[in-house]
Design brief:
Length: about 140
């Protein structure tokens, strides 16, 4: 397993622009996340955790963090994966990510899309973690 950290940004148009304008401090349009990823040949799986940026829109009963499951693949230096939110806070949709994987400098960057909404993302590996069964 590998630990990654990164951020994604919303395109400044469309539905998300109007939702972001409702959030205090909405000039910040990036969302920080951490991810635990497993690379098995050309397959990719894992989980992602991000701050719930819509907390002030949907109320304090919403979870502080959103969790999603990652599944995808790598073909050469191209990476494609789906981020499937686990349903917490009413978020159960899937976002498609597509980008470039640079194993030498340990980063991934590209774009995401969800029902016509879009943005970009970047992430960097911060460590390789042994499975707890081996510790």
């Amino acid at each position: 397993m590998e630990r990654w950290t990164g951020e994604y940004a919303y395109d400044k148009s469309g539905l998300f622009k109007s939702l972001l304008s409702q959030i205090s401090g909405a000039s910040r349009n990036t969302v920080a996340f951490s991810a635990d990823l497993v690379f098995d040949g050309n397959r990719l799986s894992g989980t992602m955790k991000e701050v719930n940026t819509f907390l002030t829109v949907y109320g304090e009963d919403s979870p502080r963090y959103l969790i999603s499951n990652i599944s995808g693949y790598i073909d050469g230096n191209e990476i494609i994966f789906d981020k499937n939110y686990d349903g917490g806070g009413g978020y159960g949709h899937t976002v498609r990510y597509k980008g470039k994987f640079d194993a030498d400098v340990e980063n991934i960057f590209g774009a995401w899309v969800y029902h016509g909404e879009k943005g970009n993302f970047k992430m960097s590996r911060i460590s390789k973690v042994l499975p707890t069964s081996l510790i």
